[in-house]
Every structure is written in C-alpha cells, then in structure tokens.
C-alpha cells in the first residue's frame, strides 16, 4: 500500500504529507552564509535528511561568498578561488551534479620565478625540459618534497571514506587526526621548520616553496606545514581544473539544485530560543538597524568566517578560540600590455615571486588571456597597488578593476584549531579553514557539519573512525561518494 501511495503522489509529496500528519519530524535549519560552504551544506543536508529538512540560507551579498566574477576587457574571470585539484572529489562531483562543465587546465606556456631583480628560474611548460632545469638548479632533493606531497594527498583521501561511513568530528583537530596523526602535528609547526626537518635545502625553500605560498595564500614560510603542503601539492602532484562556466557558478547552481530559500539579509544574532529549543535568528533585510525580523530554527549553521560576521552568539560560545585574523589579499585585474619585468627579457606567462630581500609590491602576476583590446592580467598583492606601481608593471593600461578582500586565515604556529560544534545545534563550517583554505576544504567541512547536524537532529550515534575505512574500504571510497 505504501508503495502505491508513493507512486501516486511522489516521494517528496509523501514526506510533506507525513509531516503534516505528524508522523515525520520536520527540521528547520538556518545557514548563515551563501558561499561554497553554505550552499554545499544545503546540498549535503538534503541528501541526509531528505525532504524533512526546511533549509533557509541567509546571505547579505550575492550567492558565492569569496567565489566571485570579474569582468574586464570583454571577458569574465574568477576573482576568488580559480583552480581546483584533480583529487578534489567533492568539488568535481558537485560540479557534475549541477550540470556544469569541467575544464582541465594545461601547464601553460611558462612560469618565471622572480626575486625582484631577475628570474632565478624560467619554466617553459615542457615537462621534459623543465625537469632538467629544476634538477639542474635544485638537485634531486626536490623529489623528496614531491614524494611527501604525494603521500599526504593519498593519506588525506581517507576523509572521503570516513564521511561516506557517516563519521563526523566536532573539531578540526579531530578531523585531521582521523586521517593521520602526522597532519595534526604539521598543523602546529611552520612550513620552514618542517622542511628543515626533512632536509630540504634553503634554496628550494626560498624559491619554489616560497613562490607557492605567495601565489596561493599571500603568506610566507611561517604558515603551518599542513597548509604549506596543501599549497605545494597543487603545483607538484596531479592536475588542475576549473569550472568552465566559472567557479563562482557552482554555489549559484547548488542553490537552484536544492531549491532552498535564500534571504538577502544581514544577520544580527543567533541566540537560544525563548522556547528552550533551538535558536532565534535576528536579521534585517533593509539594512536599517531598527527594522529587525526574527525566526526560530531547530539548528543553525555558520558558513561565514567569524572574524567579520559581526554576529552576536550565545554566551557559552568561545568566540576568541574560534576566531582567527585573516590575510588581506588584493587582486588587481588589468587590461593592457605588461612591460618586461626584467628589462630586455620576454615575460613568461605567469610570474611568481620568491623570497627576496627586495621590497616586492606584488606576489604574483597571471596572464589571463587576450581581450577585446590587448591582454588581461591578474596581479596579487598584500595591499592595493598605487597608480605608480601599476605604471611600473604595465607599458599600457586600458582598464583596471580591483577586488580587495580578506581571503584566507593568517596561518601562524603554534595555533588553536577551531571547533565545528560551537554548541548543541550550532555549527561552524569555516573552522576547517584554520587547517587550510580551499574550495575542497570548504566542501569537506560542509559535509562534516551536515553529518554532525544529521546525528543531532535524528539522534543518530556517531561512528568510531578507528573501526571503519581499512585498506579494502579505501579502495572503494570513490564509488561511495
């Protein structure tokens, strides 16, 4: 009989019907933040809770968060996270699920490593020639870093298996430790310390490794070693890709896929409900601080960094422990013609800066492609470029657009690792950024929070991570995503 009813009215309508009758409990969930963390969280929650989840996303700006679009020279580009690693399974699975296309990235036509006066190394994009150049300058010690990065990526894949078994973690430290105790140790030592322990030469540290830190996190080798190797892995191991339509389209498509309601508003507070169950979200849709609305929810997910949320939370939430300062990053898009960075030499396609005693005012320069007029470039820096600095870099400038934002946490050691569970029914996706910030890391944090919330709302007992995902399970995890 139940099969006939389901066939006649549909599974979704059946769940709604059962909710109305009181036979199935409906869960009201608020997600504060509409970036990749918040929108993927809505997707994962619907997978777990099915149609019993009533999800509402609160976002004060456009859907996408730090994944944004920049138009210049008649072309459109990602101004936030622009590349994704081939081993990032959630990002790829979600991209394909919402009907977007994957565009594999080639090696480009060359990369130059610049010390403020000269290129210490120029790579052509030819794998065979570049290997000889790298070994010629750095010796075979580079192989040890590659092997370590490969091992780290392979080990970290255990998280996908654990999450497929519905294992959840209340803190970032627990999550890292579950994949490998070594990861937790690396999160508490600097990249330079870790590389020194591994016997990596200072030349490799100051050039290849420093360049990766500058272009990926706009920081130096004092970042924690876990995020350092995450940064290195993108350039040394595997391949890279992006969403053909733009990475910023992924959160937008996830909202459409889930059909969740989006409320464009600024949230003032998330406080315990007067009923004693759940939380009351207070927000304003007009920007008028006197025009507040309130709504009660069974659970709340924070999917925005706490450092700039301007959000009042329950007294028992440790704000200091769970808030980190962020690194200012400025992306300056220029349509024009790049002058020779080194006089008399042709510029490579991408220019990365190494550690230098010189006062470098930019971290990297990326060639984005031809435009309706001349060419487009993206310059990363720690502060806005002056007109004089832009004039030094470019022989011709047609158009300049700037994105100035707090892009990633400032990674320092030793450091505290924030919690995913701030209080029962109150969760924080961006806790995972304290380990490393990337599109895939946000998705992993999002899936972990979805599992925590599912267990909380449905009274499901957590699974001991030590009892699952042995070697045979790891071989099958990809199919279980």
Topology at a glance:
Layout: H1 2-9, H2 11-21, E1 27-32, H3 36-49, E2 53-59, E3 69-72, E4 75-78, E5 84-85, H4 89-97, E6 102-104, E7 111-114, E8 119-123, H5 127-138, H6 142-156, H7 158-164, H8 172-179, H9 181-186, H10 191-197, H11 202-217, H12 225-236, E9 240-243, H13 249-258, E10 261-264, E11 266-272, E12 279-284, E13 293-297, E14 299-302, H14 319-322, E15 326-338, E16 350-353, E17 364-370, E18 375-381, H15 387-393, E19 394-409, E20 421-423, E21 426-428, H16 439-458, H17 471-474, H18 477-480
Parallel strand pairs: 1-2, 1-14, 2-10, 7-16, 14-21
Antiparallel strand pairs: 3-4, 5-9, 6-9, 7-8, 11-12, 12-13, 15-18, 15-19, 16-17, 17-18, 20-21
Helix pairs in contact: 1-2, 3-13, 3-16, 6-12, 10-12, 11-12
Short account of what is shown:
By secondary structure, the protein is of the alpha+beta class. The chain is built from 18 helices and 21 strands.
Please give the largest β-sheet.
Answer: 7 strands, mixed
Strand order across the largest sheet: 8-7-16-17-18-15-19
How would you classify the helix and strand content by structural class?
A: alpha+beta
DSSP summary, beta strand count: 21
CA(first)-CA(last) distance:
32 Å
Radius of gyration based on Cα positions: 24 Å
What is the helix content?
25-40%
Strand content: 15-25%
Which spans have pLDDT < 50 for at least 5 consecutive residues? none
What is the residue-mean pLDDT, rounded to a whole number?
90
Outline: globular
Number of H- or I-type helical stretches = 18
């Amino acid at each position: 009989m139940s099969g006939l009813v389901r066939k006649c009215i549909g599974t979704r309508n059946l769940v709604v019907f059962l909710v109305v009758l009181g036979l199935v409990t409906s869960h009201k969930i608020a997600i504060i933040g509409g970036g990749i963390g918040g929108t993927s969280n809505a997707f994962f929650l619907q997978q777990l809770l099915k149609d019993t989840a009533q999800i509402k996303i609160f976002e004060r700006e456009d859907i996408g968060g730090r994944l944004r679009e920049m138009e210049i020279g008649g072309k459109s580009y990602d101004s936030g996270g622009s590349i994704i690693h081939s081993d990032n399974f959630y990002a790829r699975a979600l991209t394909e699920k919402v009907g977007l296309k994957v565009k594999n990235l080639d090696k480009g036509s060359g990369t130059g490593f610049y010390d403020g006066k000269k290129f210490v190394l120029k790579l052509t994009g030819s794998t065979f020639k570049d290997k000889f150049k790298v070994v010629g300058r750095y010796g075979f010690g580079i192989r040890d870093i590659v092997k370590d990065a490969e091992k780290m990526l392979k080990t970290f894949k255990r998280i996908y298996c654990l999450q497929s078994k519905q294992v959840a973690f209340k803190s970032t430290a627990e999550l890292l430790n579950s994949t490998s105790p070594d990861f937790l140790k690396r999160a508490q030592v600097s990249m330079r310390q870790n590389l020194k322990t591994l016997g990596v030469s200072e030349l490799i540290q100051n050039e290849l490794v420093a360049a990766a830190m500058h272009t990926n996190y706009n920081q130096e080798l004092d970042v924690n070693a876990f995020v350092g190797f995450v940064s290195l892995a993108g350039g040394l191991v595997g391949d890279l890709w992006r969403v053909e339509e733009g990475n910023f389209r992924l959160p937008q498509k996830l909202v459409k896929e889930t059909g969740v309601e989006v409320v464009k508003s600024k949230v003032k507070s998330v406080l315990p409900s007067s009923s004693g169950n759940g939380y009351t979200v207070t927000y304003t849709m007009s920007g008028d601080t006197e025009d507040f609305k309130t709504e009660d929810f069974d659970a709340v997910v924070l999917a925005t960094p706490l450092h700039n949320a301007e959000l009042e939370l329950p007294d028992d939430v440790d704000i200091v422990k769970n808030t980190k300062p962020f690194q200012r990053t400025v992306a300056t898009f220029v349509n024009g013609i790049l002058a020779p960075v080194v006089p008399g030499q042709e510029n490579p396609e991408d220019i990365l800066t190494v550690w230098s005693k010189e006062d470098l005012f930019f971290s990297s320069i990326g060639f984005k492609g031809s435009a309706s007029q001349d060419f487009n470039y993206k310059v990363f820096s720690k502060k806005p470029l002056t007109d004089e600095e832009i004039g030094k870099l470019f022989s011709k400038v047609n158009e300049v657009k700037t994105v100035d934002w707090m892009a990633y946490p400032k990674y320092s050691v030793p450091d505290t690792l924030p919690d995913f569970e701030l209080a029962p029914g109150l969760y924080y996706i961006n806790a995972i950024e304290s380990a490393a910030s990337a599109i895939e890391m946000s998705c992993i944090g999002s899936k972990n929070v979805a599992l925590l919330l599912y267990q909380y709302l449905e009274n499901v007992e957590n699974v001991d991570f030590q009892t699952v995902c042995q070697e045979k399970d790891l071989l099958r995890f990809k199919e279980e995503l």
